[in-house]
Design a protein that fits this description.
disordered C terminus, single chain, 7 helices, about 325 residues, eleven-stranded mixed beta sheet, 11 strands
Length: about 325
Amino acid sequence: MSNWQDRTYKHGDDTSSYPYIQWVNNGGTLEPRQPMGGFAAPLDQDLPLPGTFAYLHHKNGEQTEVMYSADLTVAVIATRFAWFRDGYRVGAYEDGARGKLQALCLVQTQDGPKTAMLTFTGLTSKHFAAARKAYLSQVRKATKGKAPSWAFWMTIKANGTEMVGKTAQSSITKLALAREVNPDTDYIGGELADQVETLLDDEAPVWVAVWAKPGSDGNGNGDDDENGNGNGNGNGNGNGHSNESNGDAYQRAALPANKAGYKTVGDAVAAGDTDMLEKARTWAEGQGHKALADACSIALRNMADTTESELPF
């Protein structure tokens, strides 16, 4: 009879566990109160963020001890996106669903770089995606396309608050890049680069792909763990090296000719032009262009979706 210890296994389980960091949209949910939201990591993880101790208050009346920071320095390895409704991941957008984006990163902590996940929900996921896209462009320009963005530290920060929503307005904390890339000083180094390459070859594709299956939000609904593994549909081409979120695909939908000059739904989203999106949706419905009508509906819902997801994480 063979023994399990005698075998060299080629494949591991279809899940990977990492410490996690949640974006907090409202500084008022923190004690002591903060003027803005930011990043929060539970103290029961080996993830000492450079920041301050705080209690994070949840909608159900419970609280979590966290380290809070208004900014974070990371190297983004991969991202994944999914739609969630009633705590469960759904395969595609449907009425009442909310978008969630997670980023697998190297994170600078008080104990040095560690691998962790960042979680963004609703409108903030779009802020993060926009910041990362800008950083990708900076890296490509600075290195003349000779190095990937994950090879350089990126600092993102809470960037003020704004009131959003058409009817019941609420305050959210905006997220933005803190600075431009400097390839000479922001390079993560050869040793960390080797670690990232190994993650991209092995764990990252699994981490991305696991969101392609139905599952829970990681908060005790369904069969997923606390990291949200199994929570929806991710991005990338399956090898971990392409990290554009499929959840943003609707932004590429082409708009009809318009006075504002928007070519795509994403152009109108970037300008915050909900009136144009509503007009485009009405036109598309009248013309029978279901794909464009759906894309406009998703964009409008994302732009209006500003409520913070219930924690813990």
